[in-house]
Amino acid sequence: MAYVVCATWKAAAGQEDAVLSLLTQISAESSAEPGCLLFWVHRSMADPRTFFLYEQYASEADFQAHAASDHVRRIVLDDAVHRLEERRREVFELLVPEPAGAQGRSIHG
């Protein structure tokens, strides 16, 4: 099953637009990686400084390749982390790939 990374980023005050721009870049570049299955960026409706990242990789090795990539170094490590007040990450194993009956349909209809 897929290797799942969930991360929460809280932008420093006044940095939310810059962080969103960087997240848009990292999502696009990461999604092009052969082992990246999903890279979704969400923003809290209650706190616009808080972002939630949902990432799926085919394997832990694919995630490690992602973490060692030039775009992660350039966008995340050299820039984004300096604009954050907080950054947390947790790793999960995907057990059920989609809800019964969903068959790839969007949750938005």
Secondary-structure topology with pairs:
Elements: E1 3-11, H1 16-31, E2 36-43, E3 50-57, H2 60-67, H3 70-77, E4 84-93
Antiparallel strand pairs: 1-3, 1-4, 2-3
What can you tell me about this protein's structure?
The structure is a single chain. The chain contains three helices and four strands. By secondary structure, the protein is α+β, with helices and mostly antiparallel strands. The chain has a single domain, classed as 2-Layer Sandwich (Alpha-Beta Plaits). Strands 2-3-1-4 form a four-stranded antiparallel beta sheet. Strand 2 and strand 3 form a beta hairpin. It starts with a strand and ends in a 16-residue tail after the last strand.
Main attributes of the structure:
single chain, 109 residues, alpha+beta, Alpha-Beta Plaits, four-stranded antiparallel sheet, 32% strand, globular
